[in-house]
Amino acid sequence: MPDIDVHALAAPVLDPEPRIESPATVVPITAPSLAPARVPLHPAALHPAVLVDPRLETLAVVQSLRAQRTPLVTLSARRLEPAVHARSVRRVRVPALAASPERWQARLLSLAAQVEPRPVLWVCSEEARAFVADARRMLEPHYDFATPLWSTDTAPLAPDAAIRAALQRGEAAIEVQVVRDAAGRCTGSCALAWAAVAPPDVVVTSVASPEVTEQSEMWLASRAHRGYARLVWTPNRFGRLALAGASSIPGAGLALAVLDGVDLPALAHAAAIGDTTCAPQSARLRLVRRLVVADGEDALVELPDLEPRDVLARIAAYVRSLVRR
Asked: d(Cα 136, Cα 76) in Å, to the nearest integer?
């Protein structure tokens, strides 16, 4: 049996660390790094959008953000909801919000750790707004908010309730939707005039109404608002337009604004992440729709488009003339 060299099994002796005489003798390493480059989670590296308790009105947000390849995640306890079951949308099922709000909070915190870059939170119902407002201190380090969390207490009624109340009185209502960025610039606005015709039908048209839009922007600027907001103006007892409802939760008029050329969801998403490259958008003033007002949560159901010879088109033109005055 050959002898075993015990010196070969011993730990190697390392040479002493070389001494550097001068910093000028240090040669920089110019070889390319062998470490793999960090690949973003999404091809476009867009900030994902997390929709909390989406509703039927949120489908316009889903369609708009999907067109920009924005990753979408829905957090909902509802099963039959178009926004939840849209294509290319990640669905997260949770119990009812009133039963276990802690499960919703845990899900939001886990989603913030799974998606990147910094996600944008969309509050889609009044219940979700109250929940997120309570957990705001815990969620703010992880999310940007596309919809501010102020409640409808700042206005007499919710926007949908204000529109229905005005239509029941036989009066017109003007809904103004605005998006303001962090610098206070209005990047998008759309004004919709609601007028009652033969019950339960109503006509909604897009109007210019610069005075009402300016009043809405001033009202939001006084509250340092950033993001999406919708305000409803109705005539008071003196015949002047007064604020009847305000909210930051998307409503049925959001899809109508998108149809008229103002991509409010994309602008609100850009305002939340601080993107200042979006050019301001204004409505094309070509929208004329006939809707039916129903009771309950689904207050507005769209009917087919109007024919050019329909008498309702003349009524819509009359409403526009009143607003322009």
From this structure: 18
pTM of the model: 0.75
Q: Does domain 152-324 have CATH number 3.30.470.20?
A: yes
Q: What string of DSSP letters covers 68-94?
A: TT--EEEEES-SS-TTTS-TTEEEEE-
d(CA 58, CA 249): 9
The domain limits of the chain are: 49-145, 152-324
Condensed to tens digits (0 to 9), the pLDDT of residues 155-171 reads 667 888 899 889 888 89
Residue 208 buriedness (CB in 10 A; 0-12 / 13-18 / 19+) = middle
Sign of the CA dihedral 125, 177, 118, 86? Answer: positive
Q: What is the pLDDT of residue 101?
A: 93
Q: 62 vs 66, 127, 265, CA distance in Å?
A: 6, 20, 9
Spatial neighbors of 58 by CB under 8 A, at least 6 apart, are: 51, 83, 122, 124, 250
Residue 154 to residues 121, 182, 248, Cα–Cα distance (Å) = 22, 21, 11
Would you identify the CATH topology of the domain 49-145?
Rossmann fold (3.40.50)
